[in-house]
Design a protein that fits this description.
There is one protein chain. This protein is α/β, with parallel strands linked by helices and about 500 residues long. It has two domains: about 350 residues, no CATH class; about 100 residues, no CATH class. Helices cover about 60% and strands about 5% of the residues. Strands 4-3-5-7-6 form a five-stranded mixed sheet. β3, α18 and β4 form a beta-alpha-beta unit. The longest helix has about 45 residues.
């Protein structure tokens, strides 16, 4: 009875996934904050909670700006800050990510039941719950898990609409689609599996598609409001504006963020990363390939799942950057295919004897161990980076005087967050932001990383400005990050702007 209860399956997998994520947070002491994006999302959320527009205005930025032009995640955090005003935004950000990652696994079970047995659909949910990339993205302060959960919920509610035609499910489907795009623009690619679900539906559900489209527009209202406040369009982000199918075979890129070089062509790198142990599991990928082969008679299932996977993989292999979280949305589809492949292999090869069961148990244990190892390998770099940022904040608090200006490269957002004082990001700074040259400046950056990134015109001009106008006295280092005092007394303010 339990195995055939969709609600019980949903919540069992949800709780299982949540416990894994909570355990990693407790064991690692990870706050979810690292790099730059998370701090910007929190800053935007706190401003939204105070009634400011959908933007982030940290010191050193020439204009109000929202990462990837998608305010959905910050808007969700700000909602909880309004309801519980005496709480911390980072708490809610991590709670939202954990809940989203757990919901993503649970919704995989609900979608899988359309093509798999109840037991196999639970297996697909467990795969998503344990996939290293899914665990990693759902314990950090980042949009990916939240956006992906909304997108998967849209697919599930679309299937629900077709099974039990009802305006409620159509509204939910459309709203979740709009909200997912509002949280992360590339989630618009969910339209591919949705289109494949609807394309061969007879009769075509025109009424419910129209209802869903209207609901999607409502879900995207925050995005429209945000874009109305900005001079740049939604595709001004260089990751999207530099997209090209030719990038699949390229290894060298020059972007506003710096020069990027890869050992393999970007497309091959992505494919090898997807099949690696830090993404999901090489065995799961092989089972998914078997599932794609054996599911050929089930044309609708194969069409939807392969279209789902292909849409995001093709998009990512045309970018200029490599990041496993960009391909997170394919994990549920891969998990469903892998369970279909597992069931097909077991039945076709008659692997049901006691000996095979023991071998399967041993093999499964080995997979679980490697998956947990993959989770550790995927998560630990972010934990270490978070620790470095907190160490930097402690050192700066001891070294900086009240009127010192702090200038950092890829460290300013973190320092401003922890120190609760202005910190200028080198990438955005201009002369007016730096202010008077008589002020002492504390510079915080990784010299090797900055030298590599400064090959691009934007950063080259800014680094050259420092080299020409400031004498930097090294003070100390925190791992690879150098801290120094910059004497810029020779600086004469002018009207020239040095940001693009």
């Amino acid at each position: 009875m339990w195995a055939r209860s969709p609600t019980a399956q949903f919540w069992t997998v949800f709780i299982f996934a949540a416990l894994i994520r909570i355990a990693w947070v407790i064991l690692s002491g990870f706050t979810g904050l690292y790099g730059q994006d998370g701090y910007a999302y929190l800053d935007a959320a706190e401003r939204m909670a105070q009634g400011h527009p959908f933007s982030v205005q940290m010191v050193g930025m020439p204009d109000p700006w929202m990462i990837a032009a998608a305010p959905g995640y910050s808007l969700a955090i700000s909602f909880f800050l309004r309801v519980f005003p005496d709480t911390f935004s980072v708490w809610w950000a991590q709670v939202i990510s954990i809940a989203a990652g757990s919901t993503m696994a649970a919704w995989t079970v609900s979608i899988g039941r359309r093509w798999l047995s109840p037991e196999a659909s639970i297996g697909a949910g467990v795969v998503v719950a344990m996939a290293p990339v899914a665990v990693q993205t759902s314990v950090v302060v980042m949009t990916d898990a939240f956006a992906t959960a909304l997108g998967i919920g849209c697919i599930w509610s679309t299937l629900r609409t077709l099974e039990r035609p009802n305006a409620y499910w159509a509204i939910l489907s459309g709203f979740l689609f709009g909200a997912s795009v509002c949280t992360r623009l590339p989630m618009g690619l969910v339209a591919v599996p949705l289109g494949l679900i609807l394309a061969f539906r007879k009769p075509f559900p025109v009424k419910y598609v129209v209802i869903a489209a209207v609901a999607a527009i409502v879900g995207m209202i925050p995005e429209f409001v945000y874009l109305n406040q900005q001079s740049d369009g939604p595709f001004s982000n260089h990751m999207i504006s530099l997209w090209s199918p030719v990038n699949f075979w390229r290894q060298h890129f020059v972007t506003p963020d710096g020069s990027l070089d890869y050992n393999l062509p970007l497309g091959i790198y992505y494919l090898s990363m997807i099949s690696g142990h830090k993404f999901i599991s090489p065995v799961i990928i092989l089972l998914a390939a078997a599932g794609a082969w054996y599911s050929r008679p089930k044309t609708t299932m194969l069409r939807v799942l392969l279209g789902w996977i292909a849409a995001f993989v093709v998009f990512c292999t045309g970018l200029t950057v490599i990041n496993p979280r960009y391909v997170l949305p394919i994990v549920p589809a891969v998990a469903i295919l892998s369970m279909y492949g597992f069931i097909a292999i077991r039945s076709r090869w008659n692997l049901n004897g006691l000996r095979w069961r023991r071998a399967g148990l041993l093999f499964g244990t080995a997979i679980v161990v490697t998956v947990f190892w993959g989770q550790f390998r995927a998560l630990i770099p972010f934990v270490e980076l978070s620790e470095v940022e907190q160490e930097l904040a402690v050192v700066i608090s001891q070294k900086a005087k009240a009127d010192d200006e702090i200038v950092g490269f890829k460290t300013a957002f973190a320092l401003e967050w922890y120190l609760r004082r202005p910190a200028t990001e080198l990438f955005f700074f201009d002369e007016t932001v730096l202010g008077s040259g008589s002020k002492r400046k504390i510079v915080v950056w990784d010299p090797h990383d900055l030298a590599k990134r400064a090959t691009t015109p934007i950063l080259h001009r800014k680094k050259k400005w420092f080299d020409d106008h400031c004498i930097i006295e090294p003070v100390t280092k925190v791992r690879t990050i150098a801290i120094g005092y910059a004497d810029c007394s020779s600086f004469v303010p002018s009207t020239e702007k040095i940001y693009p």
